[in-house]
Amino acid sequence: MGPLATAVFYRLVVLNTVARRDQDHIPLIVDSHAQIPDRTAFLLGEGDDPRPALREAAYRLAEAGADLLVMPCNTANAFASDVESAAGRPLVPWLETAVAAACGDRKASDTVRCGLLGTDGTLRTGLYRAAFAERGVEVLEPDKRDQASVMDAIYADDGVKASGSASPERRDALVVTARNLVERGANVLLLACTELPLAIPADDPAWPARTVDPALEVARLTILRAGARLRPIPVPA
Amino acid sequence: MGPLATAVFYRLVVLNTVARRDQDHIPLIVDSHAQIPDRTAFLLGEGDDPRPALREAAYRLAEAGADLLVMPCNTANAFASDVESAAGRPLVPWLETAVAAACGDRKASDTVRCGLLGTDGTLRTGLYRAAFAERGVEVLEPDKRDQASVMDAIYADDGVKASGSASPERRDALVVTARNLVERGANVLLLACTELPLAIPADDPAWPARTVDPALEVARLTILRAGARLRPIPVPA
After folding, report:
1. Which pLDDT value is given to residue A125?
2. B167 and B191 in contact (C-beta within 8 Å)?
3. How many other CB atoms are found less than 10 A from the CB of residue A69?
4. How far is CA B97 from CA A24, A56, B223, in A?
5. Cβ–Cβ of A22/B11 closer than 8 Å?
6. Does residue B211 have a pLDDT over 80?
7. Nearest CA to A3 among B18, B10, B3?
8. Of A59, A31, A226, which Cα lies nearest the Cα of B35?
9. pLDDT tens for residues A53-112?
10. CA dist., res. A92 & res. A95, Å (int)
């Protein structure tokens, strides 16, 4: 739904597929339907309901021949069951995949404390908190001021949705937010908004903890479910 | 058709649109139909005819509501008229846009000598040569050995289609190819294959001449034709 996040997700699927030639890639139909009402705004009670447009888009993809759906937007996955039933096709599970990647192997999961970086809408739904709670994993969310930094990195004029990346100031504020979560005990950080990996350079030495990008994890699961060959080592965007 | 090139084209459309929020972007449907037979192989008489699959894909996009089509593959634009008539929808003109960008303003076009970097198939069709000839512009093509370097940068195991970028060796060979064209008189280089901009870093100081990426030019024209707002300064991928 975020068109840039969708373009990045599509690229992740391509880069993580073992393909010696174009024809080895999985066939994808992308409905970049940017006019779907903002998911976060709706979940905060401030905007139109995106569900009718989501259902219609999913139905059209199924009609166009899609066997498997994927919705590269953390917030929109709050409506996963609506979308699956409208299309009669399964979604690649976004939240579950992200949570599993954050927890790593089961033995370690009781020592995981996850810092959650996402939109106000994603946090407000409590979907990630619930999924982590099932595994007994503690979730830490940014305080009010830091959460404003996260929203600005996504939505401000010098943030990802308007400018394709985040300005150095927005980026620095995200680093502060991440550090505060780590200081409070987080030992893994989940980038629970598809715009955030575009704001944070993967190789930033100031970034303080192991970080999970759900888009990368879901892209890899999509390749497997579609029956293509997965690169053994993850390739970031 | 090259899935990575398609992902990059989609990203160029997003990055070159003025949008304060997702909903300002143009709605796009991407049919990433990687199974369409290789265009170059067919044009060289060595592979299946891609036209039936191209016609079907174009028809399906029109059925899905597309008013305007764009085919981010230089070689495939050899079949532009087939695609337009199958879909009953216009294509954003790829070859003409690339040629116009290479020529710059009309007054200068009699001093333009264009070095053409593309697949064997694209060169063999002579489509670019014909379009440049209409403007009286001389075209220089790599010699046999350099043309092999271009093909390797695209098709070898350490080239763009198989690895997402080009190895340093493939990249160096492309620089040599470009320099040889400039030495023979080229003063502008046209990257007439959507994989080539992924092999050449835009900021490589060793790259010898002004270079036109048709994908960027066509992405910008697509934004205008779709009625969205274009960023005044081009944003490369």
Report:
1. 87
2. no
3. 21
4. 30, 35, 13
5. no
6. yes
7. B10
8. A226
9. 999 999 999 998 899 999 998 888 989 999 999 999 999 999 999 999 999 866 655 789
10. 9
For residue A179 the two structure tokens come to 């550090």
Whole-angstrom distance, CA of residue A109 vs CA of residue A106 = 5
Enter the ipTM: 0.78
| A27 and chain B in contact, CB less than 8 A | yes
Give the model's pLDDT for residue B180.
97
| CA–CA separation, A189 and B101 (whole Å) | 45
**Contacts B42 to A, Cβ<8 Å:** none
Query: Measuring CA to CA, which residue among B148, B166, B144 is closest to residue B157?
Result: B166
Q: Which of residues 139-158 of B touch A (CB under 8 A)?
A: 155, 157
Hey, are the CB atoms on A4 and B15 less than 8 Å from each other?
yes
Q: Identify the CA nearest to A35 among candidates B231, B16, B67, B28.
A: B28
pTM (two decimals):
0.86
Query: For chains A and B, what is the number of CB pairs under 8 angstroms?
Result: 114
Which tens digit of pLDDT belongs to each residue from B30-60?
998 888 888 888 888 889 999 999 999 999 9
For the segment B114-153, what is each residue's pLDDT rounded down to a tens digit?
A: 999 999 988 988 989 999 999 899 999 999 999 999 999 9
Per-residue pLDDT, B108: 57
Residue B226 contacts residue B105 (beta carbons within 8 Å)? no
| Gap between the Cα atoms of B197 and A170, Å rounded | 29
| Residue to substitute from B4, B9, B18, B22, interface A, most A β-carbons within 10 A | B22
Write out chain A residues lying below 8 Å of B8, CB-based. Answer: 11
- Residue A192 token pair: 């629970």
Q: How far is A187 from chain B (nearest CA, A)?
A: 32
Estimate to the nearest angstrom the gap between the alpha carbon of B116 and the chain centroid.
11
A103 counts as catalytic: no
Consecutive 10-residue averages of pLDDT for chain A (237 residues): 88 92 90 85 88 93 93 90 95 94 74 94 90 92 97 91 87 94 96 90 81 95 95 89
Pairing of strands B113-117, B138-140: parallel
